[in-house]
Amino acid sequence: MNSQWFKNTDIRVDDVSITTLCSHTALQIFHGAKREGFKTVGIVDSSRKWFYDLFSNLIDEFIVVDDWFDVCSPRVIAKLRELNSILIPHGSLVEYVGLERIRKIPIPIFGLRDLLVVESNQHSKMELLSRAGIRIPKSYRFGDNIDGVVIVKLPGAKGGKGYFIARRGDEVIAGINKLLEEGIIKDVNEVLIQEYVIGVPAYFHYFNSVILKRLELFGIDIRYESNVDGLRRLPMDVLSSISPTFNVVGNLPLVVRESLLPTVMRYGMNFIEATRNYLPPGIVGPFCLEGIIRDDGGIVIFEFSGRIVAGTNLYVQGSPYSQFYWDEPMSMGRRIAREIKLAIQEGRLNEILT
Ligand code: AMP
Fold first, then answer.
1. What confidence tens digit (pLDDT) does each residue in 265-303 have?
2. Alpha-carbon span 134 to 132, nearest angstrom
3. Protein residue with least CA distance to atom 2, ligand 1
């Protein structure tokens, strides 16, 4: 794979609209774009329009669709062009609109388009992390003997929905067969069977600035998931009869021991290097490494997101880490807009859009 820089020079640099789908981190993205002086455009599903209307101070123009698939219709594309849009990808974009449509959408995307493709496949995702030299959990194939506890994961950014825990090979096979029967997956290779790592989950947010040539650690969060994060309230004897599930319901802020930060930064740097080597021209802007901090201080990364993550919604006024780079309220949404602004000022917009 090889993402192309967006060469289409007909983007009018004095009149850019920051555009995103009204979902996920949209309010933060619009808020940040406004602070940087940009026009904002929200693509909104008609059923949610009333909600986003409540924030009309942040959104200059709406493009209303009745179905997310319409995002790639000639009508919407023409409107996005007319509005001189740069599209900011987030977790709902690929999930709602579909990977192939987004891959081909003829509108400049902020960041590395092909990373969205790698991200949507659990196996290629883990391969990229492994090539980056980042510590990852052990993986198993369908039918393998299972040594310890495993988590079985579905493809795509579904926020942990449908994942299950198993202790033995026959439990894994039964669970996957059920997913096949229910039509949730079509092929056993779509799922990832991964060692369940015990420790504290932590999601590390980064921003790779191509314009300033530096990696910024932007924040850390813990995802709060139902029901797994509620189980600790129950007595031990009840717990054995309950299967944990991993539906994300929100995010909690986290700072980690400072002695862990060198590993966190090293992982981020390794990840950027791997994307440059295997997905040239390499990652631009926000990304997240998602892992478990073990009791020996080791950090095992089980997942990445190659775009803004929902945990950054915690830090609309900046995080304890973003303060070290930007002595002003700097959310991830604003940081994206700032990068675009700096690129425009330096005539380097083509280095950050694919
Ligand atoms: P993911 O969709 O990969 O972010 O996973 C959803 C949730 O499942 C995570 O937030 C964790 O709580 C849990 N999880 C995923 N992979 C692992 C793993 N290898 N070990 C322990 N917990 C995991």
1. 999 999 999 999 999 999 999 999 999 999 999 999 999
2. 5
3. 160
